[in-house]
Amino acid sequence: MMMTCCEAREFLAEYLTGAMSAIEREEFERHIAICDECTQRLRATNQAWHVALKSVARIPDPLADEVPDSLLRAILHLQARMNSNTSRGLPIDRDNPCLIPAGLFSEVPIRIGSAG
After folding, report:
1. Alpha carbon of residue 92 to chain centroid
2. 3-state SS string over 6-68?
3. How far is residue 54 CA from its own chain's centroid?
4. For 89, left (φ over 0), alpha (ψ -120 to 50), or beta?
5. Quick one: pLDDT at residue 109?
6. Within 13 Å of residue 29, how many CA atoms lie on the same side as its CB?
7. Residues 6 or more apart from 102 whose CB is under 8 A from it?
């Protein structure tokens, strides 16, 4: 069965981050190959993704004492949930999709209370 436009839209982030299974990726690419609207949406999302990555790359890392412990705990909790979801075949935190960037950009080990 061919992937629909609605389904393809739901997989844009997973496709761009490489978080799809091989079967999902094949279905997605088959749909993109024949759907101009979804191809344009993929290009636009890809451009927006790269702009976001570039803007985040320009933000200097905060000093350890500038980051509240509660924020560090929240990021660690999100990473654990995302790792748990990924192991169950869910590449993102579906309960909190707005927090996906926090999980994507915080791959450096975080130590709570690491300030001097």
Report:
1. 7
2. HHHHHCHHHHHHCCCCHHHHHHHHHHHHHCHHHHHHHHHHHHHHHHHHHHHHCCCCCCHHHCC
3. 15
4. left
5. 45
6. 10
7. 75, 78
Map tokens 């890392």 to a residue: 61
Average pLDDT over residues 85-100: 48
Which tokens go with 24?
A: 């999902």
Tokens of 91: 């590449």
Residue positions counted in the chain:
116
CB burial class (10 A; 0-12, 13-18, 19+) of residue 98?
Answer: exposed
Taking the whole predicted model, whether its pTM rises above 0.85 is answered as: no
Query: Domain locations in the chain?
Result: 1-59, 60-116
Query: What is the token pair recorded at 90?
Result: 């869910």
